[in-house]
């Protein structure tokens, strides 16, 4: 199966250039396609049965001492396991991605500016606008079996999290948050157990500082 983070990144960039549609879903008191419910664990609203990859049982908690600092000035910096490697692509060399050695778990860092984006009439610039576009993209993906959208925190910022599961048992966590003038995206694809074991490290170490927090 093709890497969903890669496919999502390419289609999202195209979606940013057009006004979003399908903003009629209501999850709380305001009408939106993006998340409005405040949660911390992001329990999904399942719309179809999902399967779990066998690699999920190998997930272990990760400590800060077992990580390396990666990143780039334009997408931010974050800590990942020491044995992770660059996930390069000749076709899309500008995408910043790292993966586990077996390339099953993949992390993507991106950022978006207001200039890249065509807002709907009256739509404010921010993480919610970008998350709306991605929500519509994943909603239309025929390989997704469940899609959940929630408000949460990431790196101390108000964030929107899209959680998607797919027919092959993989899970994608897709965070969007505004810092300064840019909306940042942190996306990780793999088994749900692996993602949850890495989630505290990701949420607590992302920043625009190249140094690991506390060092």
Describe it.
The protein is an alpha+beta fold. The protein has helices at 4-15, 127-139, 192-205; strands at 67-72, 76-81, 85-86, 96-99, 106-112, 144-154, 157-166, 171-179, 182-190. The strands form two sheets. Strands 3-4-5-9-8-7-6 form a seven-stranded antiparallel β-sheet, with helices on both faces. Strands 1-2 form a two-stranded antiparallel ribbon. The radius of gyration is 16 Å and the shape is globular. It starts with a helix and ends in a 10-residue tail after the last helix. Mean pLDDT is 80; it is low at 16-32 and 36-58.
Fold topology:
Elements: H1 4-15, E1 67-72, E2 76-81, E3 85-86, E4 96-99, E5 106-112, H2 127-139, E6 144-154, E7 157-166, E8 171-179, E9 182-190, H3 192-205
Antiparallel strand pairs: 1-2, 3-4, 4-5, 5-9, 6-7, 7-8, 8-9
Helix pairs in contact: 1-2
**Number of distinct beta strands:** 9
Strand line-up of the largest beta sheet: 3-4-5-9-8-7-6
Mean pLDDT equals 80
Name the beta content range.
25-35%
Count, helices: 3
Low-confidence parts lasting 5 or more residues at pLDDT below 50? 16-32, 36-58
Sheet with most strands: 7 strands, antiparallel
Class per helix and strand makeup: alpha+beta
Task: Output the radius of gyration.
Answer: 16 Å
**Could you give the order of the helices and strands?**
HEEEEEHEEEEH
What overall geometry do the principal axes of the alpha carbons give?
A: globular
Level of helix content? 10-25%
- Compute the separation of the termini in Å: 39 Å
């Amino acid at each position: 199966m093709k890497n969903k983070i890669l496919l999502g990144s390419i289609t999202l960039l195209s979606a940013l250039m057009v006004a979003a549609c399908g903003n009629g879903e209501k999850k709380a008191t305001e009408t939106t396609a993006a998340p409005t419910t405040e949660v911390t664990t992001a329990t999904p609203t399942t719309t179809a049965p999902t399967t779990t990859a066998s690699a999920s049982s190998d997930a272990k908690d990760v400590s800060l001492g077992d990580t390396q600092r990666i990143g780039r000035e334009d997408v931010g910096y974050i800590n990942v396991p020491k044995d992770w490697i660059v996930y390069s692509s000749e076709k899309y060399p500008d995408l910043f991605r790292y993966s586990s050695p077996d390339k099953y778990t993949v992390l993507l860092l991106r950022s978006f500016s207001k200039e890249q984006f065509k807002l709907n009439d009256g739509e404010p610039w921010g993480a919610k606008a970008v998350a709306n576009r991605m929500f519509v993209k994943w909603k239309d993906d025929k390989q997704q079996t469940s899609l959940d959208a929630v408000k949460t925190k990431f790196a101390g910022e108000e964030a929107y999290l899209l959680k998607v599961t797919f027919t092959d048992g993989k899970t994608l966590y897709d965070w969007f948050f505004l810092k300064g003038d840019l909306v940042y995206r942190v996306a990780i694809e793999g088994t749900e157990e692996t993602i949850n074991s890495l989630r505290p490290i990701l949420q607590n170490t992302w920043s625009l500082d190249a140094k690991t927090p506390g060092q």
